[in-house]
Specification:
This protein has 93 residues and is mainly alpha-helical. It folds into 2 domains: 58 residues, no CATH class; 34 residues. The chain contains 3 helices and 2 strands. A two-stranded antiparallel ribbon has the order 1-2. β1 and β2 form a beta hairpin. The chain is rod-shaped.
């Protein structure tokens, strides 16, 4: 018994993030209940709807970079406050 694949196949012609089409279809399926993602092939492996949901939830590259920058800004802000307090303490002594 072999696998028989039927349904929609999306292969972008331009360089895009690997899970971008899956994310778009998943968002579309949320507002259109007739469309259900039941299984798919990701990197040559057959995955079920739960795995597809996990892949669809991966943020875009821009989103990940924004999260990274936000974390770094918080650290730099805390460091600058600490250094400012330290310099004010040194000026008083």
């Amino acid at each position: 018994m072999g696998l028989q694949a039927t349904g929609l196949q999306i292969r972008p012609e331009t360089p895009t993030p690997p899970y971008s089409p899956l994310h778009s279809i998943s968002e579309f399926a949320k507002s259109h209940e007739a469309l259900q993602l039941k299984a798919g092939i990701v990197e040559g492996k057959v995955v079920d709807s739960n795995e597809l949901g996990k892949y669809a939830a991966i943020p875009s590259r821009e989103g990940l970079l924004t999260m990274l920058a936000g974390g770094l800004i918080g650290t730099v802000k805390d460091l600058s406050i600490c250094l400012d307090l330290y310099s004010k303490e040194k000026e008083e002594n």
